[in-house]
Amino acid sequence: MTPLEFLGLVGQLYAIMNPIGKLAIVGPLAVEKPTYVRKITVVVIIAVYILSSIFALSGGFILAAFGVSLDSFRIAGGTVLMAISLMTLVSGSYVGRIEVTEEQAIVPLATPLIVGPGTITALIVMSSVHGPLTALATALAASTAVAVTLLLGIRVVKYIGATPLRLLGRFMSLIIASVATEMILTGVRNQVVKWTS
């Protein structure tokens, strides 16, 4: 795998995690309680590192354990990812409004908002196609980018507000929809080749 291809995988995973869109959730509280929000953000970041690493390393084993083919998973996962992106485009989030508390730093902020069905799907596919070590490296790189975005973002949101972040989050949803489309088309194409060969 070339460095450019690796960066492409990291970019895809970062877009699916969509930390910019999540900043709009903690934005209002960052103005009122910046220290509290920083504490929550650190907990979220640690959880994201742990969860993404687990799915990156176990992706291939999960498919084998349930007897699911990679292409079937691509189609199913791509469909779920498309649904999430469409809901995010319409409402800004696929879980509705939440109150940000320390107890909710892991659920729902870390998961399912950042490491949710889309992220898990992408990591399992990456692990099956490129191997668990490449998937792990991708997960760690994307998680680091998410960490930087969140830590810098909670400072910036105090000055620009949450509205620009919501707009950027919706734009990222278009990228997610594109990734979902590619997953579905690849899965369908490979299945058709199997059936006709």
Keywords:
UPF0056 membrane protein; transmembrane; about 85% helix; transmembrane helix; about 200 residues; Multi_antbiot-R_MarC; mainly alpha
Structure description:
The chain is mainly alpha-helical and 197 residues long. The chain has one domain. 87% of the residues lie in helices and 0% in strands. It contains 8 helices and no strands. It has helices at residues 3-17, 19-32, 34-66, 70-91, 105-114, 117-130, 132-160, 163-196. Keywords: Cell membrane, Membrane, Transmembrane, Transmembrane helix. It is a multi-pass membrane protein. It is found in: Cell membrane. InterPro entries: Multi_antbiot-R_MarC. Belongs to the UPF0056 (MarC) family.
Overall pLDDT, averaged? 88
Please trace the helix and strand order, writing H or E for each element.
HHHHHHHH
What's the overall geometry? globular
- How many alpha or pi helices? 8
**Cα gyration radius (Å):** 17 Å
Major sheet characteristics: none
Low-confidence stretches: none
Helicity level: over 70%
How many distinct folded domains? 1
Strand content: under 5%
Family: Belongs to the UPF0056 (MarC) family.
Main location: membrane
Keywords: Cell membrane, Membrane, Transmembrane, Transmembrane helix
Membrane topology: Multi-pass membrane protein
The gist of it:
The protein is mainly α.
Fold blueprint:
Elements (H helix, E strand, L loop, with lengths): L2 H15 L1 H14 L1 H33 L3 H22 L13 H10 L2 H14 L1 H29 L2 H34 L1
Helix pairs in contact: 1-6, 1-7, 2-3, 2-7, 2-8, 3-5, 3-6, 3-7, 4-6, 4-8, 6-7
